[in-house]
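To the wet lab folks,

You asked to see what we're planning to order before we commit. Fair enough. Below is the target structure as tokens, and below that is the sequence we designed to fit it. If anything looks off to you, flag it before the synthesis order goes out.
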């Protein structure tokens, strides 16, 4: 289990999970590496909160260039896992490099 912080506050936990969320999901998609774990840490710690709603927070790492470019995204469930409420917080659902990196059309 890895813990990711935003300042001093625990913002996300990477649990073993299943093929649909967490570490096992990232491994099954061929995404996991030490470098990938560091990208999750950096994005949660310093990235923008792109969305915050019931059961979901999306952190994004954007490059300040013209136009701005999204380079990494982490989706977290800060609440309990809906299948087993003893798992609380559920933690990292998924993380990835956007294939069509979102960017503004003009500066």
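Sequence we intend to order:
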């Amino acid at each position: 289990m890895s813990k990711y912080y935003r300042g001093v506050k625990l913002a996300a936990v990477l649990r073993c999970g299943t093929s649909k969320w967490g570490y096992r999901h990232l491994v099954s998609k061929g995404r996991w590496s030490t470098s990938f774990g560091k990208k999750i840490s950096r994005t949660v710690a310093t990235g923008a909160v792109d969305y915050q709603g019931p059961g979901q927070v999306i952190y994004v790492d954007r490059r300040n260039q013209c136009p701005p470019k999204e380079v990494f995204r982490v989706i977290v469930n800060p609440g309990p896992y809906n299948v087993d409420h003893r798992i609380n917080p559920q933690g990292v659902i998924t993380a990835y490099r956007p294939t069509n990196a979102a960017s503004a059309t003009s500066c």
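Structural context that might help your review: The first helix runs from residue 22 to 28. Residues 34 and 40 are 10 Å apart (CA to CA).

Thanks,
Computational group
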